[in-house]
């Protein structure tokens, strides 16, 4: 067996149609990281790219034994790509970063320093989001406000996927079996000694953002529904309030009928209230549907992703800790 010892540091990079970003990315990451920690690997997760990403990855992995790639059979989304990266990373510390060089590799030096100090969950904190469009920022702000008021999990402000996880945090992430993956919430849910390290977001080096509005909306809904049941419970209170109003209205109508006798007007009130309550009912059904759909996805127990190809893989087992590995080597 080609025995390659487990690296100290794994860099996990999800890629979706990033062929043009890859050469510069690899150059900058290897140049920077080899000075920080010579024992490292870069693991790409090709999330069903439709451009020449796979060819580019093959070329790069042939030239450098520290590079590996896992290629999905289709696009599963960034969250799932990260989960696959954590499944297949072998390092004692795992850094997750974007392929577009918006996450400066230099910040990994600070992450590693904190890791050596004993932090298991070191997250990058964006200094500012001025680089993103105002619409996207407003949307993000609204979402985080909602998440904070509904959810039981707190998200550190400005933290994203750019982070370092210690092996024990990686194993905790791997133990979470859910299909609707809202990593940002999960990182925070697993706990461990955590700390934020500020970094400056760069402009995207090549190409354009891979998130469509639809994808972002789905992501936001996944985030809210997997960390809070408040949207489900709120209907109980809405229902109670509406019934109370109906009761008051009924009393008013009875008194009116007794005092003035029966009168016929009230047609607009009728239409408006019918429309209002149908709307409320459809909305609450829709919310139920969101949750039931997710429950359905969970009970089907489908695998999280399908790997079509592994590139530059030496076949070494994944996620074996250094200690276990040396114990095994001793036995052979
Ligand atoms: N990405 C992915 N699958 C997707 C969408 C994005 O793996 O379905 C990757 C993408 O290649 C990049 C990272 O996720 O490495 C962040 O994407 P992007 O830069 O487009 O997001 P933004 O920075 O605009 O939020
Ligand atoms: Mg980006």
Major sheet details: 8 strands, mixed
Helix share, percent: 40-55%
Tell me the distance between the termini.
11 Å
Strand adjacency order, main sheet: 7-5-6-4-1-2-3-8
C-alpha Rg, in Å?
Answer: 26 Å
Secondary-structure element order, N to C = EHEHEHEHEHEHHEHHHEH
How would the blueprint of this fold be written?
Elements: E1 9-15, H1 22-36, E2 40-46, H2 53-63, E3 67-72, H3 78-88, E4 93-96, H4 107-116, E5 121-126, H5 134-150, E6 159-166, H6 167-175, H7 183-189, E7 194-199, H8 213-227, H9 230-260, H10 267-299, E8 307-311, H11 322-331
Account of the protein in words:
Helix 5 packs parallel to helix 8. Helix 2 links the parallel strand 2 and strand 3 (67-72). This protein is an alpha/beta fold and 332 residues long. It has an eight-stranded mixed sheet with strand order 7-5-6-4-1-2-3-8, with helices on both faces. The longest helix is centred in the C-terminal third of the chain and has 33 residues, at 267-299. It has helices at residues 22-36, 53-63, 78-88, 107-116, 134-150, 167-175, 183-189, 213-227, 230-260, 267-299, 322-331; strands spanning 9-15, 40-46, 67-72, 93-96, 121-126, 159-166, 194-199, 307-311. The structure holds uridine-5'-diphosphate and magnesium ion (MG). Residues 98, 100, 102, 204, 209 line the site of magnesium ion.
